[in-house]
Structure formats: C-alpha cells, structure tokens
Amino acid sequence: MARKLLIDCDPGIDDALAITIALFAPDVDVVAITATEGNVAAAQASCNVQSIVEQLDPPRYPRLGMARGGDAPLTVDARRIHGEDGLGNTGFVVSRLHHGHPSEKIITDLIREEKENLTILTLGPLTNIARVFGADPSLASSVGRLVMMGGSIQAGGNVTPAAEFNMHCDPVSAAAVFRSPSTKILVPLDVTQQCAEGLSFIDELPPDTTRAGRFLRCIVPFLFRSVRQHLGLEVVYLHDVLALLVALYPERFETSEVAGDVELEGNLCRGATVFDRRPRPDWRTNMEAVVRLDGPWVRSKLRDLIDLAGQRSGH
Ligand code: RIB
Ligand code: CA
Question: Looking at CB atoms within 10 Å, which of 44, 105, 175, 195 has the fewest?
Fold first, then answer.
C-alpha cells in the first residue's frame, strides 16, 4: 500500500529536489505539499510550491497549501543560498497563481482524513505544524508520524554557530512541536551533513529531454555556486533529500530515543536544539533521532530515485 505523505516545506532548492524525487517515487502517494516561510518569505514559498508542481506535471497532483507568515517577522532567510526567488533565480512563471487554501487547513484536513496512515515530512520551520497542533491538540496524537529535517545533536549550527536554520527561524513553534505527543523522528545536521554531493552530481542528473531533468538542471547548479561563494564549500548538503529517504525507508536508518528541547532566548543560542545526554538524564525522551546512516546505500538510492523521476516525468 502506498505511503501517504504530506510535505511541509520552504522551497528552497534542496526542498525542490526532495519534492521532485517524492512525486515520482514508487509506493508513495504525495497527498499534499504545503508551504511555510523559511528559506524565502511566505508568499514566495507558496508560489514556489506551485511552480515546482507545474514544472514537473506529476501523474497525480497533490493538494497545495499556501504559507501564512510567521507570528514574528522573519529575522533570517536563505536567499543568498537558494536565490532571491528560492529556486536559483530561475523566474519560473506560475500559470495560475491560485489563492489556494492555507497550509494549516490542508494539514488539518489530511490528518483528520488519513490519521495514522499519514506521514508528515517537514523540510522547513515548524510554524504550520505548531499552528495545527495548537488549534486542535488531538491532531498531534492522531497523525501517524512526523519526520522533521532540522536541529543538531552534536554538529553545532549552520545559520548560527549554535542553531540549525529550520529551528532557528521559528524556535517557539519548534519547541511546541518537540513537546507535542506526536510520534516524531528528527533528521539532524549530524546526519544530513553526511549527505554531501560534489559537482559531478550535476552531470548525473536526468537529461534535459525529461521534465525532471530540465527542472533540476535549472536549479541545482545555482546551489553549488552559492555554497562555494558564500560558505566556501565544494559540496552541497542535501538536507531535505535525506529527510525524505528517512520518511520513505525508515528501516534503513539507525535511530536513538532522545529527550530534546529548543532554546527560545539568547543572542548566541536562540533556536539551538538541546538534548539531555547526561549519564542519568531527567528529561523524558520525546522523539527518535537518526544517528547513523548507510552512506553507500543513500548515494545509490538517491541516484536510483532521481533517475526514476527523469524516466517517469516524461518529456
Ligand atoms: O538547515 C537546513 C535546512 O534549512 C534545509 O531544510 C534547507 O532547505 C533550509 O530550509
Ligand atoms: Ca528546507
């Protein structure tokens, strides 16, 4: 039976790559893609979700959710890494920028419809999820699983020395979701930074005679240029793609029960994820975290799924 997947994201080039793979992966039914602000502002994230689906024209169109800005103004974004438009400044024109339903409504409706059959994959800040659980706390226990890209156990931060971007953007929402009774799997920087690809990755993308190939060859090169220019890196970290693989193939990853929370105060550590790893912890465990991956399997699976997206996306 196909896994029912809702992707909540802030596209973002690695978000877009994860969405491309998911829309054409076997045994996956992407029932919705909901936008949240993060890499780019809410309106742009909403536009990007529509652009991505239109560019890929998948056999089954997911329901789309439109982002509403966070309760606090966005203090940071990642446009220098993902482009002013979040998709490598490709300037995709959305044919019908329909003013769809708010992301929170789509998420709420699908949890009520699909219950334990639904996996929610979060690839951006947890603003939408916190709103949904805050409006109806019963939904936190009703959804099957939450797979969250974000946080850091021992890997430090990326947007600040202490905090990972998704958690730093909206730490209040992140803390609320961490404390919710939902079944959670965290995919932290400790493992996503092992999902690194060099420039040769571009040559391995599907040909531009395919829809997926054309789309990915438009956006992925920008990411390599920007991380080199702004971060001094010769590789890109496919954070959101690894989180998707965890959502689709959880049995292939080693996890550990952890007790985590999010720092809400401070100039230096706001948004940092903190875990009680003392010999005799007194925080209660509240989620699983991926602690180990099979690198060769991840590389091989990633390539197989991207090739499949090329084949299935047509011309
Ligand atoms: O820290 C990495 C995360 O921040 C990824 O989801 C990336 O897309 C950005 O949102
Ligand atoms: Ca993201």
Answer: 105
State which amino acid sits at residue 255. T
Please give the pLDDT value at position 98: 63
**Structure tokens that stand for 292 in this block:** 């180990």
The position carrying tokens 């197989």 is 304
* Number of Cα atoms under 13 Å in the Cβ half of residue 258: 24
CATH number at residue 15: 3.90.245.10
Residue 63 burial by Cβ neighbours in a 10 Å radius (0-12, 13-18, 19+): middle
Angle, CA 207 vertex, CA 204 and CA 203 arms, to 5°: 25
**How does pLDDT run across 136-188, given as a tens digit for each residue?**
999 999 999 999 999 999 999 999 999 999 999 999 999 999 999 999 999 99
Ligand 1 pocket member 190 (CB < 6 A): no
Domain containing 33 equals 3-313
The tokens describing 300, both together, are 């091989």
Tokens representing 8 are 């909540």
Q: How many domains does the chain have?
A: 1
Gap from CA of 231 to ligand 2 centroid (Å): 17
Q: Which atom of ligand 1 is nearest to the CA of 123?
A: 6
User: What CA–CA distance (Å, rounded) separates 245 from 107?
Assistant: 21
Task: Please tell me what DSSP assigns to residue 102.
Answer: B
User: Left, alpha or beta for 293 (phi > 0: left; psi -120 to 50: alpha)?
Assistant: beta
Evaluate: CB of 223 within 6 angstroms of ligand 1: no
Separation of alpha carbons 118 and 143, rounded Å: 6
